[in-house]
């Protein structure tokens, strides 16, 4: 059964903009992206909105809906109260390009700084082998669709633009954790996680986990384990002493990568 | 005047509101702040009052172990080796341990950063601070000692378990007693034990720090068990906090004669 949905959609660009009111006829079972497409088709043909798969798998239609970072294609209209106005804005942590489209290139620049997977030399038969338990551990991290909702909600960069150069953000702590927990990887990324990715800036308020559309336990399974590994590397006097006694520090220093580019 | 930052940065969508959230996002930080403040006020009063903390065979967890000569007779299971030089209540010596665990706990950090420091008050709600350095500088860099607070707390839990076992002795010193206070002390020891074991640092030390689970099957299994507890860490944090205060309150009431302890056998 159809009804009229009251919407406010942010229209504008870097020079300015405003929330524009729309009344959109919608059908039962539709999602916010359907309503945005109907605005495009019937009322404002020039409304800019980024989308692709419409199935919650491409991470393109990230917006902020009633103030919460969400995928427009996965936000059902039935989740709103009768008569509730649905407000849609672009991601507020990134530069706006136009309407609901933002420039998320910050994330791609961060990705370039993370040293790539560096496996140990192949064994004599040429086949790498991993046990199932080790494969499963990283599987959760590979569910990431790079929607960057965790990045936009992270107050470290959302509320402090000046932190962007020294902070990678939750999505990339996932990447650090995935590689650091990989049994075949030879790099020690703990020092980079502290000095380059700025994991110390994270105060684990768990917003990244709350908004993740894939349900990845970003804080508990990636960020906190990485923080604990940084403690092993930099703050724990007992592990520091162990490294000195067993001369592991020399081995580790040799394996600290600089960045992907180098 | 400094250039606008955060959601007011010049390249971002110009939206005046600090947040466009329409739900009651302020509920969690407000409730958290009220409960924590109430606990701190109660614990401070009880720690400094220095009386009604022992009702044979029950010793309140706030004063366990009681190790100064000021302790009332029968309450010093580990002796009074600290002597009489300590000028404050004996509880102050002890409460530093659970306090350091909770202050540096990953769950409580989320709770008090949101509730007291508003950094941020809630997800997608702009924080009021102009600068932010997270846990990179003193004093917050000290959060990295959390695992040492855990080690101390685990030892403290052994003592609380001992107290719970001793609560099966009657006031006359005979085994085979159980009163409501015994049950309360047992639940207290279990909750505090589970809270400590579910800690993120414990999970890391048990097995999380390994690169390969398959090479360490026993630690992997232990890590799996701690991970199950870790998924309930927040609930255990609250339950153990409320219960420890209730345990103290119950023993306070028994010790002061306000009510008597119902005896099961």
TrEMBL record, chain A:
User: Which CDD domains has this protein been placed in?
Assistant: fer2
Q: Does the keyword GTP-binding apply?
A: no
Q: Name one GO cellular component term.
A: plasma membrane
Report if keyword Glycoprotein is assigned.
Answer: no
Cofactor(s), names only, from the UniProt record: [4Fe-4S] cluster; [2Fe-2S] cluster; [3Fe-4S] cluster
Q: What's the domain of life for this entry?
A: Bacteria
Q: Which residues form the 2Fe-2S ferredoxin-type domain?
A: 5-92
Q: Which UniProt keywords apply?
A: 2Fe-2S, 4Fe-4S, Iron, Iron-sulfur, Metal-binding, Oxidoreductase
GO biological process, any: tricarboxylic acid cycle
Family matches, as SUPFAM superfamilies: 2Fe-2S ferredoxin-like, alpha-helical ferredoxin
The family database entries (PROSITE patterns) matched by this protein are listed as: 2FE2S_FER_1 (PS00197), 2FE2S_FER_2 (PS51085)
Q: Which pathway does it operate in?
A: Carbohydrate metabolism; tricarboxylic acid cycle
One Pfam family from the record: Fer4_8
Q: Which InterPro entries match?
A: 2Fe-2S_ferredoxin-like_sf (IPR036010), 2Fe-2S_ferredoxin-type (IPR001041), 2Fe2S_fd_BS (IPR006058), 4Fe4S_Fe-S-bd (IPR017896), Beta-grasp_dom_sf (IPR012675), Helical_ferredxn (IPR009051), SDH/FRD_Iron-Sulfur (IPR050573), Succ_DH/fum_Rdtase_Fe-S (IPR004489)
The record's GO molecular-function terms, alphabetically, read: 2 iron, 2 sulfur cluster binding; 4 iron, 4 sulfur cluster binding; electron transfer activity; metal ion binding; oxidoreductase activity
Gene3D superfamilies found in the cross-reference section:
3.10.20.30, Alpha-helical ferredoxin
Q: Which NCBIfam families match?
A: dhsB, PRK12386.1
Q: Which family does it belong to?
A: Belongs to the succinate dehydrogenase/fumarate reductase iron-sulfur protein family.
What this protein is called in its record is Succinate dehydrogenase/fumarate reductase iron-sulfur subunit
TrEMBL record, chain B:
Q: Where are the transmembrane segments?
A: 25-45, 85-108, 148-169, 175-197, 236-255
In terms of superkingdom, the source organism counts as: Bacteria
Q: Which UniProt keywords apply?
A: Membrane, Transmembrane, Transmembrane helix
Has UniProt tagged this entry with the keyword Transmembrane helix? Answer: yes
Name the UniProt record assigns to this protein: Succinate dehydrogenase
């Amino acid at each position: 059964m159809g009804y009229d949905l009251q919407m406010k959609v942010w229209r504008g660009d870097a020079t300015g903009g405003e929330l524009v009111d729309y009344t959109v006829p919608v059908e039962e079972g539709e999602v916010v992206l359907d309503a945005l497409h109907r605005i495009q088709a019937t009322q404002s043909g020039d409304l800019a909105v980024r989308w692709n798969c419409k199935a919650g798998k491409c991470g393109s239609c990230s917006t902020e809906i009633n103030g919460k970072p969400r995928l427009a294609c996965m936000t059902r209209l039935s989740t709103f109260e009768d008569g509730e106005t649905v407000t849609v804005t672009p991601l507020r942590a990134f530069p706006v390009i136009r309407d609901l489209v933002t420039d998320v290139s910050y994330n791609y620049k961060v990705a370039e700084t993370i040293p790539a997977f560096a496996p140990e030399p192949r064994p004599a038969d040429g086949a790498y082998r991993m046990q199932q338990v080790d494969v499963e551990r990283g599987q959760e991290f590979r569910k990431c669709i790079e929607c960057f909702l965790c990045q936009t909600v992270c107050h470290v960069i959302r509320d402090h633009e000046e932190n962007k150069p020294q902070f990678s953000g939750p999505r990339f702590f996932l990447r650090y954790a995935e590689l650091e927990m990989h049994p075949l990887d030879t790099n020690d990324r703990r020092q980079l996680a502290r000095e380059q990715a700025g994991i110390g800036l994270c105060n684990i308020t768990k917003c990244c986990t709350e908004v993740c559309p894939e349900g990845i336990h970003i804080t508990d399974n990636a960020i906190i384990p990485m923080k604990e590994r940084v403690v092993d590397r930099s703050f724990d006097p007992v592990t520091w002493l162990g490294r000195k006694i067993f001369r592991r520090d020399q081995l580790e220093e040799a394996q600290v990568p600089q960045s992907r580019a180098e | 005047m400094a250039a606008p930052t955060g959601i007011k940065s010049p390249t971002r969508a110009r939206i005046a509101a600090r947040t466009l959230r329409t739900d009651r996002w302020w509920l969690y930080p407000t409730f958290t702040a009220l409960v924590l403040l109430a606990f701190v006020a109660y614990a401070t009063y009880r720690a400094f009052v220095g009386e009604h903390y022992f009702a044979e065979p029950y010793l309140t967890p706030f004063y366990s172990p009681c190790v100064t000569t000021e302790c009332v007779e029968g309450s010093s299971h580990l002796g009074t080796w600290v002597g009489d030089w300590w000028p404050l209540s004996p509880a102050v010596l002890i409460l530093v341990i659970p306090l350091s665990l909770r202050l540096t706990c990953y769950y409580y950090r989320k709770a008090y950063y949101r509730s007291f420091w508003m950094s941020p008050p809630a997800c997608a709600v702009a924080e009021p601070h102009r600068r932010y350095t997270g846990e990179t500088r003193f004093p917050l860099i000290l959060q990295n000692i959390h695992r040492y607070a855990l080690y101390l707390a685990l030892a403290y839990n052994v003592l609380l378990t001992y107290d719970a076992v001793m609560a099966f002795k009657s006031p006359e010193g005979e085994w085979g007693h159980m009163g409501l206070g015994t049950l309360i002390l047992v639940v207290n020891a279990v909750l505090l034990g589970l809270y400590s074991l579910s800690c993120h640092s414990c999970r890391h030390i048990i097995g999380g720090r390994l690169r390969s689970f398959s090479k360490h099957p026993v630690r992997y299994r232990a890590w799996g068990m701690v991970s199950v507890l870790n998924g309930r860490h927040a609930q255990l944090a609250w339950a153990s906090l409320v219960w420890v205060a209730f345990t103290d309150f119950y023993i306070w009431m028994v010790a002061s004669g306000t009510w008597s302890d119902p005896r099961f056998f």
